[in-house]
Specification:
The complex is a heterodimer of chains A (144) and B (77). Chain A is of the alpha+beta class and 144 residues long. Chain A is built from 3 helices and 10 strands; from the N terminus they run βαββββαβββαββ. Chain B contains 2 helices and 5 strands, in the order E-H-E-H-E-E-E. Classes of the chains: A alpha+beta (144), B alpha+beta (77).
Chain lengths: 144, 77
Amino acid sequence: MPVWIRANHFDPLELIQQYQIQLENKKKGQYGATAIFIGTMRDFNEDRRVTAMTLEHYPGMTEVALEAICEEAKQKWPVLEVLVVHRVGAIKPSDSIVLVAVWSAHRAEAYEANRYIMEALKSKAPFWKKEATPNGDKWVSKNT
Amino acid sequence: MAITVKFFARLREELNIDEERIDAQAGLTALHVWQKLTGQTSLPAQILIAVNHEYVKESVTVNDNDEVAFFPPVTGG
């Protein structure tokens, strides 16, 4: 259940493909469902234009929090594998911010575990977004 | 004993403190650490606290070499 923090651009579909090649060796035939969530940076938020963003995180705690969330999901649903990737640093619109992929035997647990991980990440993982807007920089105050 | 205190995001900028190593007496709580570093008597309601990378309440007692962090609501994903 790897958790990767990336300081540079990543291609989520490429990472899924690479990760799944490893799974073919270990868990071939076991999984029948893969639920994938990809979060991408918009060029707007609420009523303002956003030209760039900086994502700060708490190194050390971020990994601990994300691993705990993945473990919780594994306790709740019969999940075979989880991959979580999150971007930090300077980000541009259309860059990928987050990838959550869940492999399981059936679709229900893949969908539910994926949603659970994503919502828990939004409320517990120590990341903070600072938006660059035409009116200056602005910390995002809370997640919706 | 000594502890490390970290601040993140908007809080780090407002207080102009990134990280500090401070001497602390036994029995010190996370709230005491906040008061010592910021001069504010109470912790703003939305501020979160972590000790050694785990979320805690302000009443938790800190120990030698602990890492205490204060930060605003998280906004990742």
